[in-house]
Amino acid sequence: MRILNVVGARPDFIKIAPLMAEYNRRQGVEAFLVHTGQHYDEAMSRLFFSELGIPQPDINLEVGSGSHAAQTAEIMTRFEPVLLSTEPDVVVVVGDVNSTFACGLVAAKLGIRLAHVEAGLRSFDRSMPEEVNRVLTDAISDLLFCTEESGIENLLNEGIPKDKVHFVGNVMIDTLLNNRAKAQESAVLNRLGVNDGRYALLTLHRPANVDDPQTFGSILDAIGVILKDMPVVFPVHPRTRMNLNSGSVGVRVGQMAGLRLTEPLGYLDFLRLMRSASVVLTDSSGIQDETAILKVPCLTLRDGTERPVTVTCGSNRIAGRDRRRILAAYRDAISPNGHGFQTPPLWDGRAARRIVDVLIQKA
Ligand code: UD1
Questions:
Q1: Residue 93: exposure state from Cβ atoms within 10 A (0-12, 13-18, ≥19)
Q2: To test the ligand 1 pocket, which listed residue (65, 98, 245, 302) has its Cβ within 8 A of the most ligand atoms?
Q3: What is the predicted pLDDT for the residue at 161?
Q4: What residues contact 274, with CB distance under 8 A and at least 6 apart?
Q5: Model confidence over 204-242: pLDDT tens digits?
Q6: Per residue in 35-44, pLDDT tens?
Q7: 205 a catalytic residue
Q8: Rounded to an integer, what distance in angstroms lies between the CA atom of residue 36 and that of residue 46?
Q9: Cα–Cα separations (whole angstroms), residue 160 to 135, 137, 156
Q10: Which residue among 239, 265, 270, 285 has the greatest number of ligand 1 atoms within 8 angstroms of its CB, and so is best to mutate?
């Protein structure tokens, strides 16, 4: 059986790692890996391949950055001949980035079976490019692999037949559990001059947060108050860096004592930093999942989440973008009252195994 797998952006590498390892363990499975090149910097791409032991991609489409339309179209144009020449039995796409939908659409139009890993998640906010990618990818997929029960419910509500939907757990958590011990060896805390359990970790990259100086400023107002309690480590995503380099927000950030800016970090350093943080503030998707397993309080700097299980399990709070709301959530998160953390069902490190079982049976 020939399985063609697609990755493009940083979170995809984390999701694909356990699947590539699992294919390798199965007889009769021939796995191809296509990198679209949506992310291409050393720190955003290659570093993850080496740290996570992902095999070198068979093909890199090298599309690079662009507007949504230009990037999506370019990926489709370059992916089609690859599919025609490799003739896979199934194409596996992960997550919700432009590469996910672009390659999914090419496969569906060529009549090749499409499997979507991390299907069904919904923020119900169509202004997010990822939400559009999720809804459209799910609509054209033949096999839909869900990380949490909300995903199944959303898919059934959208009329997706039940027999296409599989509750398998979370491949990001497979990767986390596989690398937790190794991450403990990272010297990143020393390097950044912070102590175990005595700093906050911040990540921001959503266009709605970092492309709008007013929203970015409101988040920084809250960070300014948190800095009175503890240092804040802030690995800066390239999109965010562009905004910092070009506006007044950048000047302000440069003047915030205790804010430790770094370049984007590798997987192991970042995992170490998450694990030892007192609190994590983020607009990322995957970090909401990862902190749920690490049992570290997470404040999601958005108005909602497509990952409601992280909230019901007790680790995640939807903190919005407004200074007062963020600070209220922060005080609640660090209060010593003790909040119970539960592990979401099936987030046990075996998601890739379950997915490959289904692929072999049904694809
Ligand atoms: C993309 C995904 C987002 C995901 C994020 C993870 C979409 C629509 N968005 O957002 O869902 O959460 O990746 O990081 O697919 N850039 C570099 N080097 C790189 C990659 C990008 O400098 O290796 C810069 C470019 O200037 C680019 C900008 O970052 O224009 C944004 O990159 P892009 O892939 O378009 O979107 P992200 O914001 O990274």
A1: buried
A2: 65
A3: 98
A4: 201, 280, 287, 290, 291, 294, 296
A5: 999 999 999 999 999 999 999 999 999 999 999 999 999
A6: 999 999 999 9
A7: yes
A8: 13
A9: 11, 12, 5
A10: 239
